[in-house]
């Protein structure tokens, strides 16, 4: 049984992004990521092998994983990988990309 990760609100995640104090992992797959993701997010699907190099060196940095929405549990793969890499402050945006969009938040398209 995978560990459960505490939830983070959209507002709290926005603040952490604005403060530059978070690493965000998008676990929706590369095609979804290309169409739009939370600004600054890492595409988990294309980064699994080298995720450690994409995350901050400080293992206490907030890491937030998300997937499609409240009924999606794919985020656990990203959260678990971060935990295996030694990160200790991992949260889950249960609203997911659907909640982010629904709240009127901006998406970033893949470069």
Give short descriptive properties of this protein.
4-stranded parallel sheet, 6 helices, globular, Oxidized Rhodanese, domain 1, 111 residues, alpha/beta
Describe this structure in words.
- This protein is an alpha/beta fold and 111 residues long.
- It has 6 helices and 4 strands; from the N terminus they run H-E-H-E-H-H-E-H-E-H.
- A 4-stranded parallel beta sheet has the order 2-1-3-4, sandwiched between helices.
Strand order of the largest sheet: 2-1-3-4
Which stretches of 5+ consecutive residues score pLDDT under 50? none
Q: Globular, elongated, flat, extended or rod-shaped: what is the shape?
A: globular
User: What is the CATH homologous superfamily assignment?
Assistant: Rhodanese-like domain
Instruction: Find the structural class using helix and strand composition.
Output: alpha/beta
Total number of strands: 4
Ends apart, CA distance between termini: 36 Å
For the sheet with most strands, the description reads:
4 strands, parallel
Please give the oligomerization state of what you see.
single chain
The name of the CATH topology is Oxidized Rhodanese, domain 1
Number of domains: 1
Average pLDDT works out at 94
Order of helices and strands: HEHEHHEHEH
CATH architecture verdict: 3-Layer(aba) Sandwich
């Amino acid at each position: 049984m995978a560990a459960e990760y505490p939830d983070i609100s959209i507002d709290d995640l926005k603040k952490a992004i604005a403060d530059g104090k978070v690493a965000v992992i998008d676990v929706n797959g590369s095609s979804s990521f290309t169409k739009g993701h939370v600004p600054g997010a890492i595409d988990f699907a294309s980064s699994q092998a080298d995720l450690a190099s994409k995350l901050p060196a400080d293992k206490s940095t907030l890491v937030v994983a998300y997937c499609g929405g409240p009924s999606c549990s794919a985020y656990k793969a990203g959260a678990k990988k971060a935990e295996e890499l030694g990160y200790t402050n991992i949260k889950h945006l249960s609203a997911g990309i659907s909640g982010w969009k629904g709240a009127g938040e901006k998406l970033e398209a893949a470069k």
